[in-house]
Amino acid sequence: ARVPGLLGLFLRAKFYPCLLGKCGRAVVFGANIVLRHPHKIEIGDNVIIDDNCLLDAKGRDNTGIRIGSGVFLGRNSILSCKNGDIVLGERVNIGFNCEVFSGSRVALGADTLVAAYCYFIGGDHNPQDVDTSVTQQGSRSHGIEVGEKCWFGAGVKVLDGITVGSNALVGAGAVLTRSVPAYALAV
């Protein structure tokens, strides 16, 4: 059952760490958070996971989700593994309604800022046979690697196989189809 207010925050702070593979100090869990495969989720100190977030670390061969200290995960955001790993460096700030999907490995470096409605798409379908439905074919994933101190404006989409160098800025609404070097501006 959903428990609102201060009582809910207190109960989640006591109960959720028991489910996780690792949980640091002073972690705040908002209301209506869904944890799937929580034994594969590790969270550092002073992390805030806002209301309605989904953390899904599913997979047979993966490590799961690693969230560094000082991370903020905005409301309605999703971290979703499909036999992949997600690594959020220290002090990463992810705005509301974002998704990070991994079929192999998606890593965001420390102090990276991600505005609302961004999508990191660390995997894709493998449509080789035009006569077969895409849903019937396999998938592939090369992963995504983001350096430290990057900034992604609202609505950015980062496609599979992309590397973004440290201190890069990606303008609102951009769709990254090619890698971005360090200190570059991509719009």
Which descriptors would you attach to this protein?
single chain; 187 residues; mainly beta; seven-stranded parallel sheet; 1 helix
Summarize the structure.
The protein is built from one helix and 24 strands. The chain is mainly beta and 187 residues long.
Describe this structure in words.
The chain is mainly β and 187 residues long. 8% of the residues lie in helices and 34% in strands. It contains 1 helix and 24 strands. It has one helix spanning 5-19, and strands at residues 22-23, 28-29, 34-36, 41-43, 48-49, 54-56, 65-67, 72-73, 78-81, 85-88, 93-94, 99-102, 105-108, 113-114, 119-122, 124-125, 139-140, 144-146, 151-152, 157-158, 163-164, 169-170, 175-176, 185-186. The strands form 4 sheets. It has an 8-stranded parallel sheet with strand order 2-5-8-11-14-19-22-24. Strands 1-4-7-10-13-18-21 form a 7-stranded parallel sheet, with no helix packed on it. A 7-stranded parallel sheet has the order 3-6-9-12-15-20-23, with no helix packed on it. It is globular and about 50 Å long. The mean pLDDT is 95.
Q: What fraction strand?
A: 25-35%
**Radius of gyration, taken over Cα atoms and rounded to an integer in Å:** 17 Å
Mean pLDDT equals: 95
DSSP helix fraction: under 10%
Strand order, main sheet: write it out.
2-5-8-11-14-19-22-24
Structural class: mainly beta
Measured between the Cα atoms of the first and last residue, the distance is 44 Å
Contiguous helical run count: 1
Order of helices and strands: HEEEEEEEEEEEEEEEEEEEEEEEE
Task: Indicate the overall shape.
Answer: globular
Let me know the largest β-sheet.
8 strands, parallel
How many β strands by DSSP? 24
Which regions contain 5 or more consecutive residues with pLDDT less than 50?
none
